[in-house]
Amino acid sequence: MTKEQLFKNIKKKRSFLCIGLDADIQKIPSHLLKTDDPVFSFNRAIIDATQQLCVAYKPNLAFYESLGNKGWMAFEKTVTYLKENYPDQFIIADAKRGDIGNTSEMYARSFFEELDIDAITVAPYMGEDSVKPFLSYKDKWVILLALTSNKGSLDFQFFKDEKGERLFEKVIKTSQNWANEENLMYVVGATQGEMFKEIRKIAPDYFLLVPGVGAQGGSLQDVAKYGMNDSCGLLINSSRAIIYADNTSGFAQAAYKEALKVQIEMELLLNEYKLL
Amino acid sequence: MTKEQLFKNIKKKRSFLCIGLDADIQKIPSHLLKTDDPVFSFNRAIIDATQQLCVAYKPNLAFYESLGNKGWMAFEKTVTYLKENYPDQFIIADAKRGDIGNTSEMYARSFFEELDIDAITVAPYMGEDSVKPFLSYKDKWVILLALTSNKGSLDFQFFKDEKGERLFEKVIKTSQNWANEENLMYVVGATQGEMFKEIRKIAPDYFLLVPGVGAQGGSLQDVAKYGMNDSCGLLINSSRAIIYADNTSGFAQAAYKEALKVQIEMELLLNEYKLL
Fold this sequence. Notes:
2 copies of one chain form a homodimer.
Chain A: H1 3-13, E1 17-21, H2 38-50, E2 56-59, H3 61-65, H4 68-85, E3 90-97, H5 101-114, E4 119-122, H6 128-131, E5 141-147, H7 153-156, H8 167-175, E6 184-188, H9 195-202, E7 208-210, H10 220-227, E8 234-238, H11 240-243, H12 251-272
Parallel strand pairs in A: 1-2, 1-8, 2-3, 3-4, 4-5, 5-6, 6-7, 7-8
């Protein structure tokens, strides 16, 4: 998917919501455990209920890999289901990969060629040759970890050089030599509030994938105020607050209601910033 | 496995070799492609041929994941085969994971509980809460990326603060607050030669997992000279140079010969540094 198509979908849906498909077998409604593939059944119901309200889905690979072989099948079925039924959804494999070149190539082949996924999250620690193999696919995206939403982000991401430049800034600046705003986004946690202003100075036109609204406590208004650009430039992820809104047989309807609340807020913001 | 057991195995085998099981379907001998599970058949033959000469095996998850569901089955079968037949081998899942706490917990459950693997490689970018969930398992290890063997290691790992401390040093120092030499190792690339001297100043007693000898050009002598400690403290990984030594039906015998060359060199070094 191109940046232009993504922005078009945002305007059509009046939403820049990304729903995190973090299907934890220990948290999904118990009646689903009787089905053949509980994780896929859960995902399909969540997707059918919410797809009008969001522009992207982000399965986090950890949740699938932790189930081994069965988990991988559920992941692949989820991707195929999205591709076949809702082809305008932007699919992000939240994998946080990053390895030496020949290994990153294997990952790129797996996610972009075999599964035809739109984007993959990548960790920057190993530098250019760990990221580049993902950048050679047309209309496919790397979403590089820059400033994450967790407490541990303080450990290394704010490490500062003698000129006062912090590691996350160095990551954002350096990676712009490898790619551009048509194939690269950054992860910036919603919990980082006012940091969005600084990030927009060094990456004005890039899309940012923003976790941490909802369960982790970030504010949608703040993120929009400091982070929105003229192509919206934001994909706000929410996982637990939506998909686990309820754990009875009404879970999908509850997920719909939660997603609708967010979509309404987003429509107001898109109007406020004159993007509709 | 404890650190003491690992050192005992090193002395018994007179080797500190780790063999990287990077089974690439495009590189394994063509006659294996006719078998039910070519990747597992390849791994099993390599393991049977080399297990006397090494103390550890390191499957890199990328190679398995790139085959989807089938690849995961081959990975799980390989781990089970090692556990059942060669229980003294230290098994490292080269996964380079690292995510927010609840997600790292899922990975920990998958690798340590379900598969009973000894160690997992973890990327440090997201800090403490992305690493900690892996540290709560008895006799299981985190191997944290510190200074990698690839060209891209120059991009961020040498980023220096106002006191001259570099990011990889900061990672090594900070992480010692979370763990100790009984459950934490570091990845340090063999291509980084003289850096081992500096790393031993800040992590004298820790095991280091060292990729980059062989195909990537690092020197075993240099690594031993600067990196060995009184528990050996080194696991030297070699992948391609051993497992792809030959691609005919004699591939396992060829792998044996290559591993034997390395083991002989290692025995000499263990003698030279009076560890046998």
